[in-house]
Design goal:
Helix content is about 30%, strand content about 20%. It is α+β, with helices and mostly antiparallel strands and about 140 residues long. A five-stranded antiparallel sheet has the order 4-3-2-1-5, with helices on one face. It starts with a helix and ends in a 38-residue tail after the last helix.
């Protein structure tokens, strides 16, 4: 009985992860096939190469037309579509956040009072010169 226990445990230790990984791969393949069959014009997608675009025509069996820029439509294999992505919606707040105010020139000009107290004080520490040749 003990002679059969060790080989049985070894088989279980090797077989269980193999079965679990096979199930995971099947689920991923099924999800990918569902995605590719559900593509419709107007869907925003990302390809396996990282290119974002909008589905223009999905009537082909193996190919799909993706608009990558206004007026630029390219043909791709359906298998090249990695995932659907949410369309980017730009609001008015996003557009105003992009504007950066430049520093005013007046803040750089000195006050002109002429006193030494108004000038910024800077001190620099200088290292002593190295003496070469002495041991």
């Amino acid at each position: 009985m003990q002679q059969l226990l060790l080989p049985l445990l070894l088989v279980l230790v090797l077989a269980v992860p193999l079965v679990m990984s096979t199930r995971k791969q099947k689920k991923q393949q099924a999800a990918q096939q569902d995605l590719q069959s559900s593509l419709a014009p107007g869907d925003r997608v990302m390809t396996t190469s990282g290119l974002y675009g909008t589905v223009a025509d999905a009537s082909g069996d193996n190919t799909i037309d993706i608009e990558i820029a206004p007026g630029v439509v390219t043909t791709w294999l359906r298998l090249a579509v990695r995932e659907k992505v949410e369309p980017v919606v730009e609001t008015d707040e996003d557009a105003t956040d992009d504007v950066v105010d430049a520093p005013a020139e007046e803040s750089i000009i000195e006050s002109g009072s002429g006193s030494k107290d108004d000038e910024p004080q800077t001190t620099a520490q200088v290292a002593p010169p190295l003496e070469h040749g002495k041991k």
